[in-house]
Fold:
Amino acid sequence: MGIRILGIGSYVPEKVLTNFDLEKMVDTSDEWIKTRTGIEQRRIAAAEQATSDLACGAAAKALEAAGIKAEELDAIIVASITVDQIFPSTACILQKKLGAKNAFCFDLEAACSGLLYALEVANSLLTANKKYKKILVIGAEKLSSIVDWEDRSTCVLFGDGAGALVLGKCRNTEENCIVASNLGSDGHYTDILQIPAGGSRLPASAETIANRQHYLAMAGSEVFKCAVTAMVHSCKKVLKEAGIAAEEVRWLVPHQANYRILRAVAGRLGIPETGVYMNVSRYGNTSAASIGLCLDEIARGGLAKPGDYLLLTAFGGGLTWASILLKW
Ligand code: COA
Structure:
């Protein structure tokens, strides 16, 4: 017994914000952003769109691709750091939009590693309990709502979007899509990537707003180093557990943070650049959504064939990291 992907979907908002647009907003340049990050443009949600709306767009396409109705879902897990509101969960808000009346729903917060954490949880639920048959996992973010548009060191990096997967069971272990996984966290680094205020530690006040503490804050170069080390280490563990050599991986699908990070990870794993799936130039860093956006492009573009190995790896605030070896 195992699990398989029944359908994948993604959604990005229509509005495109280019590096040239950003040049008019902060002291930056297309040249700086492209050479340091590989990003050329990102999508920005409309003012009236919340994360659940982006998630709904991706989920509807994933359900359509899976050929199942929302009522057939047993659970919905939304991974996000930009939930619609602190509570109720964005997963419950999404449930209502989809009409998934038979699902239990919850949010999962593991920053950019969120979709892979959600996949691990869904895998465990499906394989451990026979009453759960179909689970929808989604990474969805409206990062434009937490980015400080006056801070050039962060605002150029992020974008909005959502990626969704419908997972079901398979009887035949040959069809099982999750071959190996590795998840980890290190709470010693909570302060290098965070939103300082708005929770119980520092509730919203006139002072926190004046100090711009409700925006994402990041120590960029520290995050860079931790990201490369953690993803490489985690990928190696997964490959070892699966008994698979790096050369056997068809696609390395890393969280799309920065093409320099992706290249460094691939280089240390001995995976050629042609084997690294990258769309960071078009979407920027969409946190929990990014791997879902890649997988949807791979699926719809027919870029992987049955039996291919895809090595998914992510890293984010927490710190959190995760790698999953998928058999397509
Ligand atoms: N445009 C122009 N200059 C900028 C800039 C921008 N948008 N942002 C920062 N700079 C400046 C800095 O002020 C600094 O200037 P100084 O040398 O005069 O002080 C200079 O560029 C170099 O900054 P530095 O932070 O050393 O650049 P970097 O090569 O480390 O690249 C990041 C910065 C943010 C692109 C890089 O650190 C990074 O990608 N980090 C990881 C971010 C990430 O992926 N986070 C999410 C993980 S899930």
About this structure: Residues 251 and 275 are 5 Å apart (CA to CA). The chain has a mean pLDDT of 97.
